[in-house]
Amino acid sequence: MTTFLLVVHTLIALALVGVILLQRSEGGGLGIGGGTGGGLMTARGAANLLTRSTTVLASLFVASSILLAVLAASGNRVKPIDTSLAAKTVAPVSAPAAPGALPGLPAAPTTTPAPAGVPIAH
Question: I need a labelling partner for 35 at 20 to 30 A (CA). Which of 58, 91, 94, 112 fits?
Answer without folding.
Answer: 58
